[in-house]
Specification:
By secondary structure, this protein is an alpha/beta fold. The chain folds into 2 domains: 213 residues, Spore Coat Polysaccharide Biosynthesis Protein SpsA, Chain A, CATH 3.90.550; 134 residues, no CATH class. 54% of the residues lie in helices and 13% in strands. It is built from 12 helices and 9 strands. It has a 7-stranded mixed sheet, sandwiched between helices. A two-stranded antiparallel ribbon has the order 8-9. It is elongated.
């Protein structure tokens, strides 16, 4: 997409002289407009914003009290959506980490009316010696957790250089989070809805160990990981409760009802009869509880047509796998303690698999 069809949105808190320089470079690159949001910087920074506001094709928005980066981004998106007709927006940071050539890279890759998120991705590999060690570790860890939970490898989860077409304005306004967690919530929002990501390599710039950043390592990391892992922790609680119901019924059937039934052979393979019968009955008791908890409490789905059918398909598949596996291995187990450990190992094996499938398929939100 041509630069003059796009607007660049920059949230800014207590900027220095680098912000006007970056704005000038964007204007020289031909972008249609630059919108800067003064996120409650205070009166001593007003001259910088006045300098930017005086430039042609620039607009400065703002408010007196600091609300956070996420709030500033939504504030700017709302203005661009309501007051301009640009075909897309590129968000960028005000601290000198982004350049006009890199911003143009995203512009060139952005497609009109496409529901996708473009990410300007820095190089966090070990080959790049310009990155502070804490930034490299934090980004790599977050990328790994995101891949595990949402199935997408994003090499730079903390980049502020992002681009979307006008078709995504409503999505950006619907995303919650007023501070740095907004950008992580954006990634989760796009991943859960199976919207496309496009990774655009950009220059890696860290000035003075990134000292000018307003990111608070403890407070803002807590907000980010609370969002990233929140549904997983709720899923864990739901799974533990379901497991307790499942195992209570399983134990009752195996150790009391069917305790004297001999093992059987199917297709020449020995199986524990009591395990083959008790496992599906126990799962039928725990599955309805697990479904309701996951739908309402874990994933908070309001509109997911077909979720019951998809859950049944997944439950049956998992039931077949766990029943056959447990029935086969239980034939060789002769103590109650080992029965318990074996069941825990098998259920843990299915744990992450189930979360990923439920998150992305069973409880997907209908558009």
């Amino acid at each position: 997409m041509k630069a003059d069809k796009l607007c660049v949105l920059i949230p800014s808190l207590e900027p220095d002289e680098r912000l006007p320089r970056y704005v000038d470079s964007l204007l020289a690159a031909g972008f249609g407009q630059v919108v800067v949001v003064n996120d409650g910087s205070g009166p001593e920074y007003q001259p910088i914003f006045d300098e930017i506001s005086a430039r042609e094709r620039c607009r400065v928005l703002g408010y007196e009290v600091n609300h956070g980066k996420g709030y500033a981004l939504r504030h700017g998106i709302q203005y661009i959506k309501d007051r301009t007709d640009f075909d897309g927006v590129i968000t960028a940071d005000a601290d000198g980490q982004h350049t006009a050539p890199d911003t143009l890279k995203l512009a060139a890759e952005l497609q009109a009316d496409q529901k996708e998120l473009l990410l300007g991705s820095r190089d966090f590999s070990g080959k790049n010696k310009n990155i502070p060690s804490r930034s490299r570790f934090g980004n790599r860890m977050t990328s790994g957790v995101f891949r595990l939970l949402y199935g997408k490898w994003l090499p730079d989860t903390q980049t502020g250089l992002r681009a979307v077409s006008r078709a995504c304005y409503g999505d950006l306004l619907a995303i919650t989070g007023d501070r740095f967690e907004y950008e992580m919530n954006m990634l989760i929002y796009f991943a859960v809805r199976k919207m496309a990501f496009k990774i655009i390599p950009i220059e890696t710039i860290y000035l003075e160990e990134n000292k000018s950043s307003h990111f608070h390592p403890l407070r803002d990391s807590w907000r980010i990981y609370k969002l990233l892992l929140g549904s997983f922790f709720r899923y864990s609680a739901s799974s533990i409760l379901s497991f307790l119901i499942d195992y209570a019924v399983l134990s009752l059937l195996m150790f009391w009802v069917f305790k004297d039934r001999p093992d059987i052979t199917l297709l020449g393979i020995p199986f524990s009869f009591k395990a083959l019968v008790a496992t599906p009955i126990a799962r039928l008791c725990s599955a309805p509880v697990n479904f309701l908890l996951n739908k309402k409490f874990v994933f908070g789905v309001k509109n997911s047509r077909g979720a019951v059918g998809r859950y049944i398909v997944l439950a049956v598949l998992c039931l077949v796998i766990t029943t056959l596996l447990f029935g086969f291995l239980d034939h060789y187990v002769h103590t109650n303690v080992l029965h318990i450990l074996l069941k825990i190992v098998i259920d843990t094996f299915m744990y992450i698999f189930n979360y990923r499938i439920q998150r992305g398929w069973v409880f997907k939100e209908n558009q």
